[in-house]
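Reply to dn_fold:

You asked what the input looked like. This is it:
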Amino acid sequence: MTKNTPRGARPRAPASDPFAPHHPPSVDLLDQGLDFLDCDPMADAIHWSTGILLDLPDQPLPVRAALEKLSSCRVSLSTLSHTESVCEEFSEDLKLGQDHRDTYGDWATRCVYYQAFLGDHVCALRCAVRVWQIAMAGGHSELSLSNLLRTHAEMMSIAAYCDGGQWAPKREPRSARRQGDGLTALDIIARSVAKLDWPLNVKRGPVRDDTGYDPRDQDEDDLPEPGEAGHLVLRSTSHLNSAAQKEWKSVTGTLLPLTPVPDLAEASTTLSREFPHLRGEIDGILRTQVGRPYGRIPFTILVGEPGAGKTRAARRLCEVLGLPVTVYSAAGSADGTIIGTSRQWNSSRACVPLQAIQRDLRATVAIVVDEVDKAGSRSDNGRIVDGLLTLIEPENASRYHDPSLECPVDISPVSWIATANSLAGIPQALLDRARIVHMPSPTKADLPALARSIAADVRTERGVDLAWMPDLDSDEIELAARAWTKPSLRQLRRIVETILAGRDALATMN
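and this is what came back:
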């Protein structure tokens, strides 16, 4: 397939037409509101398909057969739908180059526009969603943005007319119709909405506050239970191909659960047993959860000496709060893929928090960015610290444009914790947005509690209970204290594992 302009895209309108060089218009120009050839979508479809067949004859047989039907004046909703499906299939064929796939994708979108203007309600809505998402992606001039928003209103109007059985294809300039349609769309939509009868047993009046409390309630039977609230992360994937829609079906248009804040006193007790040297620091973080409608930890950086247990403390803090946790290592990271990668690449993937949400089917997940001070400083492929700036602030995260899904997503309920040995390697812009918590190193006075916690972790990893692997006894604790030469939980874990392994060896010998 050459990059020469197809004959169907060359000037065919009268020379007096100021837009003649663009007829039939490209998909981008249709998004901007340009008219079809002769203001007639059927004539445009015939002209466009004929031009492709003449200038690009070496098309796959299914594509050529579909275009020949349109070129022979057999333009209908069924033939256009078939052509769209065929072109969409080739746009997803990874054996083709990216330019070829993009071209087939444009052809499929063009067929959606034709169907919309011939009265297909669903296709009109698809066009409306498409231009809205393009508009919200940003980077447009004031005129371009205005045109996109007008096209969105126009397509919503057409959808409303079609749904009400009042649409008929017209041969008139879109510019004239866009004004009238925009003014009547709300009236048409309003007439199509059934009148709601308010149930007698539902109290009416001001909306409840965020906690669900209403002073007029005589009891709490009709108040929402903790955790019943849902959060819409991903509104629609209709602009993506069928494979991507299937991949993200589980979270698209779905209210995902929000984890309620647990009993903070109980959480404090649990964590203090495991990390006796961090009691004050943990309580300080837990206090940020007081009064929240759901669990969310504001961006926090845990700073401490190597081996102080920062990563484990961050992970356990999230787990005790009921937040599914993902540990993302920043050490040596030389790119900014935490924010996701473009759909134009075969290895495209969504941003890390969105991947976690899809995996856990919960809006309140937690991301622990480990050793953020060791992240790469080169910006050739982006930097993780720059990517974090766009993800950690709720206002930005509530409308984050994911490069893989190519649409805004709301990941504002995500919790973020970073760990670092020092603040020296962290940009000031990131520090300004963080709650800094300095973590003291453990002492030998903390050893018994830490040893119990480590033994519990080992039991969990091996799938055994306390009866088969008891905690260290006093003699073993004393042995561990003599071997523990520096305040490092990593070293202490190796010591505890060695003692437990020694038990197994002695049991085998006996």
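The beta strands are 230-232, 255-257, 300-303, 325-329, 366-370, 400-402, 407-409, 415-420, 435-438.
Hope that clears it up.
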